[in-house]
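input
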Amino acid sequence: MTRDTVRIVREEILSDHYLPLKNVTYAQRRQDGELQVQSREIYDCADGAAVLLYNRAHRSVVLTRQFRLGARLAGHDGYLLEAAAGMLDGADPAERAIAEAREETGYDIDHVQSALQLYVSPGSTTERIHLFVAEYDRARRCDAGGGNPGEGEDIEVVELDFDDALAMVETGDIVDAKTVLLLMYLERKVLGRHGEAS
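output
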C-alpha cells in the first residue's frame, strides 16, 4: 500500500469555534483496485506535548486531575488523572513540556527525556502528541500549579507512589491513554516494578 492510493477531493470547514472541524472527502484506491469515495468529519488539531514527572528516590510520580468533557459524555465522571500536557502552539515540544509541567504542577524542571510520539485518535483528529518523562525534585516546587484560570483550567496536583499509580491503571482508576503509556514507559525503561532492578 502506497500513499498515492488516496487523494483528498474536498475539505469543508463545518465549525471553527475551538478547533477547526472539517468534512473531508477523499478518494481511495482499494486493494482490490476499486476506487471508493468517502467523507469523514475530522478535527484539525494542533500537536501537543505531555510529560510525566517522576522522582527516583521516592519512587513517586506527579499527576494532575482535571475535568474532561469527552470522558463525562462517554459515561465517566470526567475527572481524569493525567500527565501534565498542552498544545504546542508553535513551541518546541520539549520546551512546551517543561512549560506545562511548571504551569500545571508548579514544579520547575530543567530537561525532559523523549519517550514516544503518537497519533492520538487518527480516525477523528490530526493531533500528534510528543510524550516525555522528567525527574522532579520536591525542593524545586515553585508554586501550587493548577494551570491557567484564564483558559478555564482548574487542576488538582496529585503525587502518587509509582507502584500505586501502576495499580490504578489495572483497576481502571487511571484511564487517560497518554498517562497509561507514560507509566508503562517508566516501568519498562526507568523505574521497573517494586523490588526489580531498573
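quick obs: Residues 112 and 134 are 5 Å apart (CA to CA).
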